[in-house]
Amino acid sequence: MPHVYYKMGRFGLSLLRHISSFPSSRTCCLHQRVFPGFQSCYKSTIPVHTCQQRRGVSTALRHQMQDLSGPEQRLLDKLYEGLISGQRASLAESITLVETQHPRKKELAQVLLQKVLAYRREQESHNGGKPVAFRVGLSGPPGAGKSSFIEVVGKMLTGRGHKVSVLAVDPSSCTTGGSLMGDKTRMTELSRDMNAFIRPSPTSGTLGGVTRTTNEAIVLCEGAGYDIVLVETVGVGQSEFAVADMVDMFVLLIPPAGGDELQGIKRGIIERADLVVVTKSDGDLVVPARRIQTEYTSALKLLRRQSKSWNPKVVRASSHSGEGIPEVWAKMELYRDAMLANGELQGRRRAQQKVWMWNLIQENVLYHFQNHPGVRDALPHLEDRVTKGAVSPGLAADLLLKAFSSPSSSS
Ligand SMILES: Nc1nc2c(ncn2[C@@H]2O[C@H](COP(=O)(O)OP(=O)(O)OP(=O)(O)O)[C@@H](O)[C@H]2O)c(=O)[nH]1
């Protein structure tokens, strides 16, 4: 029988060992349900029987379904039926469920997601194994013209018979409660369109949390029949990298400005762009837009290629005049077809799933580490000693990990 070996460093092991000793935590409850015997198998190399593991996953789900009370079961049935029949209210309510911080509702959300994932897998199998929706990430500095662009492209696509959903990731709402993407009403026309669904960014939580719920919201939108999912973020902090990791195609929107206004655009994110759109290419801005197009075309040539089947392109468009908008979409379709034809798009999604899982693990593990009583006691003193140079960071980390993994301190 094939074995899967999970090799972990000391750090990972002691963290996992500790998490598994949290009987009340959701992580623990899920881990123990998903991997029965989890606690007993974390030695330096852990053999896990693949089929046992698979059985564990379905058992976990079955347990969770059996655990549901009557009202919970009815709520999930209502949401699921409403969602897959394309009701916007059910989609909105389902996304609210995945955004919740309430531990029990979080579990319900996972049951709903599993059902929707199973439904989507079925649809994909009818579609020759190909994804049923196209996920596009859009990022750019504040004022680049993102919402104007999404409004015009979105309207064009619903006019062509597509169902378009727009999800936002606003990093500022996580830290300050404010909003970089503007409190103004955005995409007014698209929000009235019955074939469009617009969901603003959650207004609280960590970026990791928002990223997680956005990933889950994408799955729900696809389950509700939206074949184009646009994920918008402002080009600040790490949010654009997070978005680039959850979509099939990443598009960078750049205004036709130079110098300081473009300083904020990170080289790292340009490398991730599959398409660069120079916005506002109309009137007096056509000339600077052309110049920026030339500059970015040269810059992209120097960057490492991300894909075997696609060379990133730089195009110009105006949301005000509509010029270049159909051409931008045509490029996106070209990209999608090329990536689908050789399986790269599917491969990218598979890799993203793994990244997503590890991000969640890291976030959870760190949370438990930071909230462990032994760690909390020792941390201020050790941080102080490290900053004064009295204790090396390595020794401090070892001491904290010891505090974390010691059985007496975890009780
Ligand atoms: N000339 C011109 N102006 C545009 C175009 N698109 C957007 N603008 C203007 O640029 C400004 C910012 O546009 P938005 O679409 O709100 O930009 P955004 O990137 O969504 O902005 P934030 O929500 O602040 O991140 C507005 O004043 C728009 O009218 C365009 O195609 N041409």
Automatic annotation (TrEMBL):
Membrane-spanning parts: none
Catalysed reaction, written as an equation: GTP + H2O = GDP + phosphate + H(+)
GO molecular function, one term: GTPase activity
PANTHER family documented for this protein: METHYLMALONIC ACIDURIA TYPE A PROTEIN, MITOCHONDRIAL (PTHR23408:SF3), METHYLMALONYL-COA MUTASE (PTHR23408)
GO CC annotation, single: cytoplasm
Function, as annotated: GTPase, binds and hydrolyzes GTP. Involved in intracellular vitamin B12 metabolism, mediates the transport of cobalamin (Cbl) into mitochondria for the final steps of adenosylcobalamin (AdoCbl) synthesis. Functions as a G-protein chaperone that assists AdoCbl cofactor delivery from MMAB to the methylmalonyl-CoA mutase (MMUT). Plays a dual role as both a protectase and a reactivase for MMUT. Protects MMUT from progressive inactivation by oxidation by decreasing the rate of the formation of the oxidized inactive cofactor hydroxocobalamin (OH2Cbl).
Stored Pfam families: MeaB
Record family assignment: Belongs to the SIMIBI class G3E GTPase family. ArgK/MeaB subfamily.
Keyword Methyltransferase attributed: no
Lineage: Eukaryota, Metazoa, Chordata, Craniata, Vertebrata
Database matches in InterPro entries: GTPase_ArgK, P-loop_NTPase
CDD domains for the chain: MMAA-like
Keywords of the record: GTP-binding, Hydrolase, Nucleotide-binding
Annotated protein name in UniProt: Metabolism of cobalamin associated A
Subunit structure: Homodimer. Interacts with MMUT (the apoenzyme form); the interaction is GTP dependent.
